[in-house]
Structures are given as C-alpha cells and as structure tokens.
Amino acid sequence: MKTKKLKLQYFFLAIITLLTFSCSDGEDGAVGPTGPQGEQGVNGQDGTNGQNGVDGQDGNANVVSVLFEDQTISNGDTVFDIPELTQEIFDTGLVYAYVTVTGNEYWETLPLSLGQEIILEIDKIEVGKATLRATFTQSNLRLRFILVASSDTHSINFSSFQDLKEYYNLEK
C-alpha cells in the first residue's frame, strides 16, 4: 500500500512538472479596436475660497543687473557705457562689479587682486558709465554691474554675486 501511494505521488509530481514546463506564453495578439467613449462624469462641487494672506514687506525693485559678454580689458582704463546708471543711483545708490572668464561657473568681486597687487578695479563711476582700471590685458571676459538705487544694503554680502542675486531676486 505504501509503495502504491508513493508511486501515485511521484506520478502526480511528474504530471505537474510536465504541465508546468510545457506551457508557454505564445505570441501576443494584435490590439483590438478602440471602444466607444464613455459617459462624462458628474461635475464635482467647487471648493470654498481660502482666506487672503497678509501682504508681505515690499521688496527693493530698484536694483538692476547689467551684463557685458565677451569683453576685452586692456592694460589701463576701459570705459563701459551703462545708461541704467542714473543720477539717482550716482547720488544715493551703490555700484558693484563682478568679473569672470566666459565659461566659468563663478563670479569674482572687484577689486580683483593677484597676491597683494590689485589687477582690476572700478576706477571711476559717473552717470551713465563706469571706468575699470586693469594691470593686464585679457579677452573673453564677462562683466556684471549691479546698480542699487536705494540704501537697503545692510544685510547683503556683496562679495558673493550669488548672495546678491538671491537677495534681490535677479534673473541674470
């Protein structure tokens, strides 16, 4: 009896194994035609309008970023015409300058020094223009002038263009 039961178990095991390995997925059939469009659902109820928030503090909209691409600085003075440098900025505002070589991912604050020697600096600021003085000649430079018309400068790190860009929400 035990032998017959054991043979029967092996037989069923062999049948299950045979059926398992003999099945295949086969090829998928072609996609059937698109069915008809279903009914439009019922519109949901509109939500309630939220409460208006408190107005924030006004920002400083009197900041301008002026970018000069692909510039050459020559030993001596180089004048940049900046029509955005108004009389108001000249009288009460600030002008900051940054420089980088085209392709760099960072900006350096002027004055720019090499060791103990200043090699590039703002020499003169006038209404409508700024003059830079250099002790070298270099092409393929990018220069950026930040013009601030107000005196709201107490919490800004002007040595970092990235900090200045974030503080004044500059796009360039």
Describe the structure.
By secondary structure, this protein is α+β, with helices and mostly antiparallel strands. The chain is 20% helix and 33% strand. The protein has three helices and eight strands. It has helices at 2-22, 87-92, 161-168, and strands spanning 63-73, 76-81, 94-101, 108-109, 112-114, 117-126, 129-134, 138-148.
Salient structural properties:
single chain, about 170 residues, alpha+beta, 4-stranded antiparallel beta sheet, 3 helices, elongated
Query: What is Rg?
Result: 37 Å
Overall morphology? elongated
- The average pLDDT value, as a whole number, equals 80
- Beta-strand content: 25-35%
* Secondary-structure element series: HEEHEEEEEEH
Give the spatial strand order of the biggest sheet. 1-8-3-4
Oligomer, anyone? single chain
The level of helicity is: 10-25%
Helix/strand/pairing class, anyone? alpha+beta
Q: Sheet bearing the most strands, described? A: 4 strands, antiparallel
The DSSP helix count reads 3
Which residues sit in consecutive blocks of at least 5 with pLDDT less than 50? none
Number of strands: 8
**How far is the N terminus from the C terminus?**
91 Å
Topology overview:
Elements: H1 2-22, E1 63-73, E2 76-81, H2 87-92, E3 94-101, E4 108-109, E5 112-114, E6 117-126, E7 129-134, E8 138-148, H3 161-168
Antiparallel strand pairs: 1-8, 2-7, 3-4, 3-8, 5-6, 6-7
Brief summary:
The protein has 172 residues and is an alpha+beta fold. It contains 3 helices and 8 strands. The relative contact order is 0.20.
